[in-house]
From TrEMBL:
Species for this entry: Lentibacillus amyloliquefaciens
Record-marked site positions (Transition state stabilizer): R15
Domain of life according to the entry: Bacteria
Coiled coil: none
Protein's UniProt name: 4-hydroxy-2-oxovalerate aldolase
Residue intervals of the Pterin-binding domain: 1-186
Length: 340
């Protein structure tokens, strides 16, 4: 494969990883990690509450630190890397987006459920007007086939998105499915195609390589797998693998390994691994960010978290319906009580 692929990586640990640490990032952590990623020449670093701008709430989990302070801190130490923010219309507002742009965020990633791209129009258009690079982020992409995915991606492209991502939020896609969907997106879109994976079924790396082989050039990773569920495609591993394949990312391999080992690993509450709950998420097709919510509900109601996750998957519960996790756990607990 040619090394002239123009692959650009986005590091998402300071946003997607926020789910894994219950949104407890401090200014010091964000400053240290961003500074180091900037030195390693990572092109984009996403910094926001796990559920995007405005996500700090009872429903999604309160941030320890105001995300605007985290964005400001990241911008202040990044003279190479561009700071990206995530926005889910309905959670974050146009006002939130303007605040982030004023602080120096250069990329807006507008995320919708895979069948609801139409709600991203106003936000993508505003981000363009603010002079930001724009990404349309189609979450839970495993829930539709290529045809629907292409239809929704085209909408985002028509609103002005510079890139449209296939987002495997549940880590449920398999390499042949990623390959087929990416091929369809590349055939039908003129903008860049991106891929964001989760490692719940241990295939995030395989999925990412399949996407790249089919022409995806905007790729997400989380350093030390610091992302929701079992984490994302592991950034430092991806950089090394791509270098072995002769594909340039511009990221310094030794530096990114050192950040993972010396700066990120020490802040993890526990090592990121595929345990039975994250595996169940990939197996059942459940949003990775539901992991800690489901763990808490399992403890509170005394129900196996796998039963909760399997039921959420059966009901096709999507982002924004976090309250259903409690509902389902309470219902299952009630059934168990009746049965005994
Ligand atoms: C809740 C937003 C979500 O974490 C975005 C994302 O990274 C995904 O869907 O994988
Ligand atoms: Mn994610």
């Amino acid at each position: 494969m040619s090394n002239q692929l123009d692959i650009k990586l986005t590091e998402v640990a300071l946003r997607d990883g926020s789910h894994a640490i219950s949104h407890q990032y401090t200014v010091e952590q964000v400053t240290n990690i961003t500074k180091a990623l900037n030195e390693a020449r990572v092109p984009y670093i996403e910094v926001t509450h796990g559920d995007g701008l405005g996500g700090s709430s009872l429903q999604y989990g309160r941030s320890l630190t105001d995300e605007l302070k985290l964005i400001e801190a990241a911008v202040s130490v990044a003279d190479f890397s561009k700071i990206a923010v995530l926005l889910l219309p309905g959670i974050g507002t146009i006002e939130n987006l303007k605040e982030a742009a004023n602080l120096g965020a250069k990329m807006a990633r507008v995320a919708t459920h895979v069948t609801e791209a139409d709600v991203s129009k106003q936000h993508i258009e505003t981000a363009k007007e603010l002079g930001m690079e724009t990404v349309g982020f189609l979450m839970m992409s495993h829930m539709v086939g290529s045809e629907k995915l292409v239809e929704q991606a085209k909408l985002m492209e028509s609103y002005g998105a510079d890139t449209v991502y296939m987002v495997d939020s549940a880590g449920a896609l398999l390499p042949h499915e990623v390959r087929e969907r990416t091929r369809a997106l590349k055939q039908e879109l003129s903008c860049h195609v991106g891929f964001h994976g989760h490692n719940n079924l241990s295939v995030a790396m395989g999925n990412t390589l399949a996407a790249i082989e089919e022409g995806a050039t905007r790729i997400d990773g989380s350093i030390r797998c610091l992302g929701a569920g079992a984490g994302n495609t592991q950034t430092e591993v991806l950089v090394a693998v791509l270098e072995k394949m002769g594909i340039e990312t511009g990221v310094d391999v030794y530096k990114i390994m050192d950040i993972a080992e010396d700066i990120v690993a020490p802040i993890l509450p526990k090592p990121q691994e595929i345990d039975r709950d994250s595996l169940t998420m990939g197996y059942a097709g459940v949003y990775s960010s539901f992991l800690l919510h489901a763990n808490r509900a399992s403890k509170k109601f005394g129900v196996d978290s796998r039963d909760i996750l399997m039921e959420l998957g059966r009901r096709e519960i999507v982002g924004g319906q976090e309250d259903m996790i409690i509902d389902v756990a309470a219902e299952l607990a009630g059934k168990e009580k009746t049965a005994t």
